[in-house]
Amino acid sequence: MADDVFGVEVVTPEQSLVAGGATAVVLATSEGALTVLDGHTPLVGDVVPGLVKVDLADGTHLRLAVHGGFVQVDTSPGAAEGLAEGDGPLPGLSTRVTLLTGVAELAGEIDVPRAERARDEASQRVTELRSGRGGASDQSDGAGAPEAALRQAEEALGRAELRLSVAAGSHE
Fold it and tell me: Residue 111: CA atoms inside 13 Å, Cβ hemisphere, count?
């Protein structure tokens, strides 16, 4: 194993998107930006929706749109077994980063036309709800229904915009 390489895995309910050796993982948590390198302090935390960058051991730079989840950094003996070989910064220890997310997409696999349609539809829905033209069905679901519908539309708009910015390479 090359120096500073550790194991990384990005997992969704459907598949393992990334599994192998990496030299860096950059993501956002509710506490702020996080860069994980080999030998990082063990931690478990949340991941907020945003860009996740993974620098693979072979020099490839992956970009993923991640819609929230959890990250675990493990530096116990054998933590990176099967993902990266050898010891981490201390003999007998290795680093493994596991990102568990409900939805994540590699930048190159994002369906841009579909994301553009989703953005346009969500934007229109947000405009309608903010102007009070959300439709009669929104009013009949109870006092909090219009606010909930607006929140859902804003979240859908945010997801579409994230996909588009990651696909375009503009989300840094």
Answer: 5
Digits of tens for pLDDT over the chain (172 positions)?
Answer: 456 888 899 999 999 999 999 999 999 999 999 999 998 999 999 999 999 999 999 999 999 999 999 999 998 877 777 666 555 544 445 789 999 999 999 999 999 999 999 999 999 999 988 888 665 454 445 557 888 989 999 999 999 999 999 999 865 5
- 16 contacts: CB under 8 Å, gap ≥ 6: 9, 10
Cβ contact 1:86 at 8 Å = yes
- 87: buried, middle or exposed (CB in 10 Å: 19+, 13-18, 0-12)? middle
Q: Which residue has the tokens 């996909």?
A: 163
Half-sphere CA count of 91, side-chain side, radius 13 A? 0
Overall residue count recorded for the chain in this entry: 172
With contact defined as beta carbons under 8 Å apart, do 9 and 97 qualify?
A: yes
- Angle formed at CA 33 by CA 160 and CA 90, multiple of 5 degrees: 130
3-state secondary structure of 131: coil
Single-letter code of the amino acid located at 81: E
**Tokens 């069905």 correspond to what residue?**
137
Provide the angle, in degrees to the nearest 10, between the axes of the packed helices 145-168 and 112-130. 150
